[in-house]
Structures
1.
Amino acid sequence: LALYFHSGEREEKCIIEDVPSDTLVIGNYKVQRWDIHKQDFLESAPGLGMFVTVTSPTADVLLSKLYGPQGTFSFTSYLSGEHVICLQSNSTRFVALAGSKLRIHLDIRVGEHFLDESVVQAKDKVNEVNLRLEHLIEQIHHVSKEQNYEREREEKFRKMSEETNSNILWWAVVQTLILISIGIWQIKSLRDFFIAKKLV
Amino acid sequence: MPPRSSRAAGPWGWLPPLLLMLLAACAARASEITFELPDNAKQCFYEEIAQGTKCTLEFQVITGGHYDVDCRLEDPDGIVLYKEMKKQYDSFTFTASRNGTYKFCFSNEFSTFTHKTVYFDFQVGEDPPLFPSENRVTALTQMESACVSIHEALKSVIDYQTHFRLREAQGRSRAEDLNTRVAYWSIGEAIILLVVSIGQVFLLKSFFSDKRTTTTRVGS
């Protein structure tokens, strides 16, 4: 758990994961609280926990649980799209405490790269290669899922571009009609007006 | 978004380090995170790196404004290794000159109301080899070397896929912006058109109002 960042006590930090459907996402985190007396981050603060909330692309909540200061959470995506993983501490202290912050270590793993722990135990040559091959197959499946997802997205994008194109065309036509009809109305109205005023 | 996240997070922990790649094998890991950076905000990330490790930081802005962000990478002594303002995409490789905590920050402080979605991929160290050669007497078998080359090829496929996905997301974001802007502009222009043309007629009519006792000829 190497990468970390700082956040306020009650601040919610979210990260976005764009994943295809049926993908397993596993997250590891560790949270430490800043201790004012020691001027350092405590290794483990009692009672400190993190609310982990995972939202699907359609704003459904897939996961919403409270974990301890260190934990692992996972979810499988049903739909493909942007899932939002939010972390918020359950600290009840008010934000007024000066210099109080949290250090959050985070590691998110998506889809294919779960190398079997048992590979290292494989003393048998054939077994090791077998396991490696299985891992490679898993990677290929992930690549294939991503490509399907890409196809869906491209279709959506194409539809939107075509819609924009036809919107512009339709608007140009309507605008021309409005212009012409307004022009005719203006001239007619002015002509009638001048005739009425006996200027013409 | 390398194999998405933690490219070699699996094997690195328990795989005994090779003589040559001692440090690198221990520290090989990759983190990729996509997060939202609000306007006028700065977000920093820290990582402890051992000396001599080759690291790569790559970032790309996916949505928001002009799709650019400031990025800054500092070593444990505070020396700035990389600093770029308003970049859309960049990749920076460096070798850690000393042990310690390296810090990199993304800043959106120049923007007043657009928040950006930023993706970054920070890779530390090289991936450990698939088949460690410390207790090996023979060279890799054909099977094993085939595995190794397929693994390398797949890693680069996944890398390309990630880049493609990000570019597509960026393109789609721009297209959605364009669509919205066209819609608003159409409505706005229609209203302006009607207001101006009707207003013109009434304005002209008011020039010839009956309040004037003498008819003044309007100069052409």
2.
Amino acid sequence: MDETVAEYIRRTVLKIPRDEIKTMLQKWGFLSEMQLQTVNFHQLKENISQDVVQLCEENSADIKQAAVLDIIYNHIYPNKRMWSVYQMNKTGEEIEFFDFTDFKKKFKRRLRSALKNVTINFREYEDNAIWIRIAWGTPYTKPNQYKTSYVVYHSQTPYVFLSASVLRSNLPLLCQALVVASNYHDIREVELRSHSLNSLKDIVFKRYSQNFQTYCPRPLSERKVAPESADVRIIQENRNEKERIQRVNREVFGDGPQPKLEFAQYKLETMFKSDPKMDVMYKKEPFRCLVKFSSPHLLESLKSLAPVGMADAPLSPLLTCIPHKARNYFKIREKKGFFPESFVSP
Amino acid sequence: MEPGRRGLMPAFPCGKMEEGKARWPDGVFAHLEMLEARAYEAAVKQEETEQREEKLARLKARVQELRRQRDELRAKVDLQQKGLGKAGVVSDAAQPSARAVLEWKIKSVKAMLQVFYLTGISGKLTKQGVCFCISTAYEGTYLDSYYLDLLTKPEVRIHRHSVPTFIPLEQIAKKHLETDIRRFLSVLADHLNAYVGRRHQADQLQEHFSDQIEGTLQRNSLCNLLVFNYNLSSRSKTFPFNARLLYGDLCCSLPTEVSVSCTPEAPASLAETAAAHSALFRRVALHRAFRSFSSAAERADVAP
């Protein structure tokens, strides 16, 4: 077995938390159950990894199997990478019969025709997600297994989730291969980025809880009802206002959990509005400014702003439109025309 | 030290040692002992007051609790009396009260709305337009509901929706939304119902007949192409048949093209079965076709 492969497998095993190593190796399926029984998974991780490499040596693992282990690790811990969203479009209206084998063939052929030194691995999951792992090389060097890009694609959808590696120069190549393999015409980056892959999927596939007005609402038992004060002599003076805030909040954010985003960035190119007599900006130029909101869970924190009293309800539509517009990078410019209000550029 | 006491001199006033000796004939230490005893008594008294206060608080809480119980019981008694009152007076029973009429009206409206919801397409007027709910079903099982929030001014357009991305919503909207909204909803409902029907069949197959299928079904998001290897009974270990089902019509939950093939070395009887299955899958839902296989196999077993 190649030394580089052995080292790669060793480092991948070291990344896995100790309690998960056995299950992940079982998912991998490359080592037999009997072989796994011979490993003591309670010893130090260093020693576990050495034992695993030894067993892989016996089975003569090559880079393809090692890559599959890497895909499994990244599938279970996708939040360690930063994901960005790309959208493809096409003009035709033909019905798509997505064939996985066809897709793989086209993708590999397109990518390899431009760059021979790449390692490409595919893995299909039950939610129709296809994970592609690409390790990049150059025309003169072998692929670097530690500089990998990941692509997650759901068949027959125009969205692709990309976790690019440091080598951004390979991005156009990758995009082209995706477009060709999935029968689309072009691809562009959507201004949506996050560490939580599932949240990105929830936003673009509209799986997050939106509050639609219907006559058959979900039963009350699902909504949390705050306990009434035990003593009837205590009167809530602001009860109406509190209920109004709760209602408006629920209309905007829905009842369920919000998708997990870490930041929202607003690039302002608006004119500074001040008292004309003060004449702060003698040059009539847009005031350039960048506002960034960050949080471990941005949308949940926005949802709780009004109930805790830190902001008025309803919140500014610039904040609440994030999942609806499926973006967290905005550019705000002046609206040209009679009414100098600011507007959000597409 | 009791606060009421005045003129307590400090124990060792500076430069007045002789005075001290004159003031406390028993000695300074005796004086200290007396002060200590006083402090002890004061502490004991304080503890007693604290205990009394605690007890008072407990009793107050108990009073509160008892008052609350009394109110509850009073309310219950009132309610019972009212109920008895209603039953007791016979002459009023013939005229339904306004309240009962209102309740009946509300119930019938709710039932009507429920019926609309069960028909599959229901809607509610909103401030800016209308919100439609398409509830899908397949063969009697209600599956997912999808929502469409439409704006009506200045023209009809979609504001928000929860339709999956692989359903060609934009295409359908471009064709029908502005001209004929009924047609738009009907076409969209067809697409959605067919999609959940196909998905339901594939899920049922995977769930109930997984031992007759090799590995997992290969499918895609729209469930319009299924490829799998299968056999007729769960006992054999080989999967001689390969099926490829193509659903050309997105509004239909039955395939338009089916090809079932066997391995080339297979006996002729299997080839015949393959052809028969090909026709079967085109007519019958997938999971029901498989159910017919297993019942046929059972019949074959039972037959002598």
